[in-house]
Design a protein that fits this description.
This protein is of the alpha+beta class and 178 residues long. The longest helix is centred in the first third of the chain and has 39 residues. It starts with a strand and ends with a strand. 25% of the residues lie in helices and 48% in strands. The protein is built from 2 helices and 11 strands, in the order E-E-H-E-E-H-E-E-E-E-E-E-E. The chain has 2 domains: 56 residues; 115 residues, Beta Barrel (Lipocalin). The strands form 2 sheets. Strands 4-5-6-7-8-9-10-11 form an 8-stranded antiparallel beta barrel.
Length: 178
């Protein structure tokens, strides 16, 4: 015996004549469809996780600003910012201790660098090279005007390269002094 059953799909009401066997077939088909869709969803989630990891490994990195100078930097130092406005607002991209330690914020993480080379490029500029666990840094520093009794303005370029060979460059303005 077939009975009339109302089925609502996407807001549409459908009248169907269904017997017991047809109802069972419809139920089994529904279960299989749900399992299939769930399997596709899980496969896409795995794919998305893989895509995210690959993207993070290959994405460009950025040099960010910081406002608190690391405690390891005490006494004489150099503080560099993206420009004089950031410098005057206490937003820095680079700090060093006048010796061999420097800090840069990369992707919002403070990274410590150790100096590996230092040489004069000419009478007004120096080139220094640094290394950290995950990055290499080259910095070209040009001397500017004296800004105080023991300080001098600086401009230049920072180039940071990650382990995969991707680089980011940033010009800077800052001061070195005691």
């Amino acid at each position: 015996m077939k009975k009339i059953q109302k089925l609502q799909v996407f807001g549409l009401e459908i009248n169907m004549k269904i017997n017991y066997i047809d109802s069972l077939k419809l139920f089994i088909l529904s279960i299989i469809s749900i399992c299939f869709l769930d399997a596709c969803k899980n496969e896409n989630q795995d794919l998305n996780k893989k895509d995210i990891k690959e993207y993070q490994a290959n994405k460009a990195f950025t040099i960010n600003t910081f406002t608190n100078v690391p405690k390891k930097i005490a006494g004489c130092s150099c503080l560099f910012s993206k420009d004089s406005i950031d410098y005057n607002n206490g937003k820095y991209i680079y700090v060093n201790d006048f010796a061999e330690t420097s800090f840069v914020t990369i992707n919002d993480t403070l990274v410590k660098f150790n100096q590996t080379a230092y040489r004069k490029a000419d009478t007004t500029a120096v080139v220094a090279k640094y290394i950290s666990k995950d990055y290499k840094m080259m910095i070209l520093v040009k001397n500017g005007e004296k800004t105080g009794k023991e300080s001098i303005s600086k401009t230049g370029l920072i180039k940071i390269t990650n382990a995969k060979g991707k680089s980011v460059k940033q010009t800077f303005y800052g001061k070195c002094g005691c």
